[in-house]
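Annex B. Sample input.
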Amino acid sequence: MRLLYGHRARLRWVHLILGGALLMPFFLVASVFVPTFTGGGSVFESLPAQIAAFGCALPLAAAAALLPLARPLSVIGARSLGGVDPALLADAPARSWAARVRTSVWFVLHVGLGGLVGICALALPRLALVLIVVRTPARLRGSRPPLPRAFHGWRVLLAPPAGITLLLALSAGAAVAGALLARTAPALLGPTPADRLAAVEARAADLAARSRLARELHDSIGHTLSAVTLQAGAAARILDSDREFVRGALTSIEEATRRTVGELDSVLGLLRQDGEQPGSSTGPTLDALGGLLAHSGAPVAYTVSGVPGRAPDPVSRAAYRIVQEGLSNALRHGGTEPVRLHIAWEDTALTITMLNSLVDGADGADRAKTGEPARPLRGAGAGGGRGLRGIGERAALLDGRAHAGPDDGRWRLTVRLPLPGGAR
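Annex B, continued. Sample output.
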């Protein structure tokens, strides 16, 4: 009984009735043209004409279901009333012809079965009621209802069981039709290979955007925290002996944190935006390099060769972040030892070179002892922490190269970023 009259069965019955209702406009259109070919009157006066109109309505419904929006509308009904797992259905409009044809087949199946169930639901209960009440005493049933010809004579005893059987058959037919729609929905309304590919590409773009924003946060906040920690520690050690140095350190901490809060607001603004393009970005460029070096927390010997120009914004932003991460590494592993930064402007590329000492050996002291040469940074496959991986990823995204490793007892970071078109 639960299969025939349970909650899911009732919802599927409603789904089928709605399918029959959706078929009615197409049936009425077909009923206008069918008499033209049959030579008769109204289709409602002839059962064969009605069957012909029903058959002609199905192709019209199939043509209408080729519209892209037919799939999401069908999915809503299949999910909410048909009891189909939402993960197996595609919510997006059908763009390819393969998806449209599959949707059209399902829609025809829906309205066709719904029309048949609707017709039976209108006709069979009345006949079943006649068969059931025929043996009821006259004082309870009123006038005697007319019986079908097959139930005259002794066969009248079979009328009530036959009526109950008709009702059960109607319920069973509706349950089978609903189960058939639910079983075919994932195959006909589910994502096509093109839909799955588009979903994978969208997911990859989203992950790329999140990874880029994560690098922005790591580079900005990580550098500031390293500089603030170093300056606060130095100020604490000489608090009583050099008040001017402490005052300068606190000023640098204030400026660095204020600048970082602005960058954090910018990055979080991107996270709140809808429809962000994967390649879009924001943040400081090489124009802000002077402020970064002035409040880096470590002495920096900065030199430039070539004729400085204006690099494209993606290259300029990447160069700023690379210098920022290089300074963070120097603060973490080189203490307050001087850092040498050299930027070489060429016609086709921008080269960044940073040299710093290794005090704690956390990122390559063992390799420095063995004289291991610098190695390329290739994103996630490179060792040495998230910072070096981020530098490698930034360079790779711009078709550049990044190398890091020991060089004569010091740590050298070299990054070469192409300048598109040779323009600066």
